[in-house]
Design a protein that fits this description.
Shape: elongated
Number of helices: 2
Radius of gyration: 15 Å
Number of domains: 1
């Protein structure tokens, strides 16, 4: 897999990770509401997955605009 297709696939996979990680964070917060470290770690990883998804998306957009 090369070029824009790889960036698009990465963006989609990271977006799926954001949804799953967010769902997991909500479940964890309801199950263990006093564990602030666990909730914080879930939140940080959700944000980092979102940043990665946005980065992959922006890279895909720039490469598809250069080709077209």
């Amino acid at each position: 897999m090369k070029g824009p297709r790889a960036w698009r696939t990465g963006a989609i996979l990271f977006a799926v990770c954001v949804v799953l990680q967010g769902f997991g964070a909500v479940r964890y917060a309801f199950r263990m509401p006093h564990d602030l470290v666990g909730i914080g770690l879930y939140s940080v990883t959700t944000v980092l997955f979102a940043v990665a998804a946005i980065g992959f998306y922006l890279k895909w957009r720039t490469e598809t605009r250069q080709e077209g």
